[in-house]
Specification:
This protein is mainly β. It is built from two helices and twelve strands. Helices cover about 10% and strands about 40% of the residues.
Length: about 180
């Protein structure tokens, strides 16, 4: 796994996933004993048929801020995390970690971090465990192509309108800070 820009973002952890291969294929067991601050709210899958697809940088503010466990169950991605927490020593910094189905790891992402990824292979599938439900009103995006200087390994092929019209990182930090004051 690779990590760029900072060695780590406070609170982010890389966790192994149990994988049991045999002649039939592979059985993968996610660690359901991981304790979110809040209880587990949902599980989601992101299907990405095109290599180079960019998703993110997404975050939710309080009262719907999310903890996440992220794994790539097919293909590979460059997972990117940006710290938006006002009292963090890594505020405004980002890190990237290559995650693949071959290595079978999960990334724990605490509340207050924006998250996104770029697919490094076609047909990549990303598995999420989330501590909060999705709330459109409390969900935001940071433009992944401007003002952050992320070294995307591939030329971005697909980026949603919401993501490309996302706010800048300074506005995102302010938005998250304001939500935790209330």
């Amino acid at each position: 796994m690779k990590s760029n820009f900072v060695d780590s973002i406070d609170g982010v952890r890389i966790l192994p996933v149990k994988s049991f291969p045999d002649e039939r294929g592979r059985f993968i067991k996610f660690d359901s004993t991981f304790n979110f601050q809040d209880s587990l709210s949902s599980i989601a899958l992101s299907f990405n048929p095109t290599k180079g697809t960019l998703r993110g940088m997404h975050f939710q503010i309080e009262p719907f801020a999310e903890e996440k466990l992220v794994a790539c169950v097919q293909g590979s991605i460059l997972d990117v995390i940006i710290d938006l927490r006002p009292d963090s020593r890594t505020l405004g910094k980002w890190t990237s970690i290559e995650v693949s189905a071959r290595e079978m790891t999960q990334i724990y992402i605490p509340k207050g971090l924006a998250h996104g990824f770029q697919t490094l292979e076609a047909d990549s599938i990303v598995h999420y465990e989330l501590s909060s439900t999705y709330s459109e009103e409390y969900s935001f995006a940071i433009n992944p192509l401007e003002g952050i200087n992320i070294n995307w390994p591939l030329k971005p092929v697909l980026v949603s309108v919401k993501d490309s019209n996302g706010m800048d990182i300074s506005s995102a930090k302010d938005r998250y800070a304001e939500s935790i004051k209330n």
